[in-house]
User: Fold this.
Amino acid sequence: MNRIIITIVFTLFFSNIYSQYNYAKLPLTKSKCPTFIVEKDIIANESIIGTTKELIVDISVLKDKPNRKVHKFYNLTENGIIFVSLKKKTAFKTQSDLNEFFGIKKNNGVYVNGYLIENSDYKIATECIMEIELVEPDSENKLKSKAINVWTLTKEQRINGCEKQNVN
Assistant:
């Protein structure tokens, strides 16, 4: 009896350890590009910085996996995150704005570059939207309802990855 209980406890323990490393993403998501987050809550891409460092107030890079319970951006960290503060205002759309535009429930899940945005506080920089696709539920993606996937990456970046960025 004790062996069974110990086995169950260890099984639950190890399954919980490894479950925090799963990312909620659409199938076939294979980008190797970092996520840019501007002013703590606007998802963007490297074009938000432009070609000059004069617009940058602050920049930091997160390469490690943070704790999912503590960091609301956890699901966007598979390829790292670059946090940026800028001297310019960034125009954005909220997740509910996008859902409403596409005629689906305001609180429906929104994906960016194939990764689910797990916190409704995040917005998406309008100048960084390359493409928006409406994803229908199917057996492969296992979605319960339609969802939006916003691409901030070009088709080439989706396939070949992103170049290393140098901000001078």
